[in-house]
Write a structure and sequence with these properties.
The chain is α/β, with parallel strands linked by helices. 43% of the residues lie in helices and 11% in strands.
């Protein structure tokens, strides 16, 4: 299984990114070649690429992914914004090719004050320009949640872009679980049907990358708010089925789940636990003590939660439903995982563990370990 998380270049570029991913137990990863919110980039010659590639080879990591920065808007009607998007995407293609990476994930863009047809035509115009160079890099258009005026909420919107592009053979798709769920696709109980529609409209041969994230929103909300695995509306079981589905075989599977802790420290997100739980080697990775701690959580929550016995699913969903009910003025705005963490700390159930370590065990509880 090629599974990992997203990481950004630091002072040591690809080498640091590889080191971070390996520390999570990753066998693939996705990089931003700089901060995803801006265009500041160091020359690739300074990004420790040979050293990073050597470390990846040493650890059996054969395929990684690059993600273009969020500020690229290929559908923008504003000339300056559009030109910035095209020119910077061209640079990102060069940077991706420099590392020998095949897939560059791109958010299609938002048409702002125009309409969908305009947005699609604008994106096609941009792609025809940026793909005209002879480079062995594929653009993987990401499925989007549909917030605001962004393009890519439906498979048909992506298919329309691909079909109209002169260089359609250079276009692929990145499937994001949170985005698809928020866009209205039933990936919880109907993932097979969703993939059948994907194949019919786009073609499974174009599916090249999978982003796995839980969602803070009910299906069809069109909001795009990621949650840790098991702490959202999708749930660990559904995501686990997707990761092990035949369509995901040999594809880079990338976690983009957030760190939601209270402490503003350098603690890492919960990628290490999420990867191990999805791979099924949590005991090997963390030892029997980790499993025993999760068992303590299960017994404790069976006593204190109003609906025990389901690895917290009903509690998670009922909490999110209460939080999204605009008719209620709730004083307690804490998210489900945050509330469970506070219960554990208040009862001193797992003394001596850091916030990160407790949250990793909460993910294990959601996963039914």
């Amino acid at each position: 299984m090629k599974i990992g998380s997203h990481v950004s270049f630091s002072n040591k570029g690809l080498l640091a990114a590889a080191e971070e991913a390996i520390s999570y137990g990753a066998t693939s990863f996705m990089v931003y070649t700089g901060a995803p919110q801006n265009t500041r980039r160091k020359p690739m010659e300074e990004q420790h690429v040979p050293e990073g590639l050597a470390l990846m080879k040493e650890h059996g990591i054969e395929e990684i992914v690059v993600h273009a920065p969020y500020i690229i808007n290929l559908a923008s009607p504003k000339r300056e914004t559009f030109r910035l998007a095209v020119e910077f995407l061209q640079q990102e293609i060069e940077r991706t090719a420099y590392m020998g990476v095949e897939n560059l994930v791109v958010h299609p863009g938002a048409y702002v004050d125009k309409d969908l047809n305009y947005g699609i035509k604008r994106i096609v115009e941009a792609l025809n320009e940026v793909l005209s160079a002879d480079r062995r890099v594929y653009i993987a258009l990401e499925t989007m949640a549909g917030k605001g005026t962004e393009v890519g909420r439906t498979f048909q919107e992506l298919a329309d872009i691909i079909e109209a592009c002169v260089y359609s053979e250079r276009l692929r798709v990145c499937f994001d679980t949170c985005h698809a769920h928020d866009a209205g696709y039933d990936i919880i109980d109907g993932f097979d049907a969703v993939m059948e529609e994907f194949d019919r409209v786009i073609g499974l041969d174009r599916l090249s990358v999978i982003h796995i994230n839980d969602s803070k929103n009910a299906r069809g909300a069109r909001k795009d708010r990621h949650a840790p695995l098991g702490a959202g509306y999708i749930g660990f079981d559904a995501i686990n089925r997707i990761v092990h589905h035949e369509v995901a075989r040999d594809k880079p599977i990338i976690l983009e789940t957030p760190w939601i802790g209270k402490e503003e420290t350098s603690q890492r997100p919960m990628y290490e636990a999420e990867i191990a739980l999805l791979r099924g080697n949590a005991v090997e990775r963390f030892g029997q003590g980790f499993v025993d701690d999760v068992a303590k959580l299960r017994a404790f929550f069976a006593e204190v939660l109003p609906e025990p016995g389901d690895n917290g699913r009903r509690y998670v969903l009922s909490t999110w439903e209460a939080l999204r009910d605009k008719k209620q003025k709730l004083a307690d705005k804490r998210e489900p995982m945050e509330r469970l963490y506070d219960l554990v700390v208040e009862r001193e159930l797992l003394p001596g563990l850091t916030e990160e370590q407790i949250n990793m065990r909460l993910v294990g509880y959601f996963a039914g370990l």
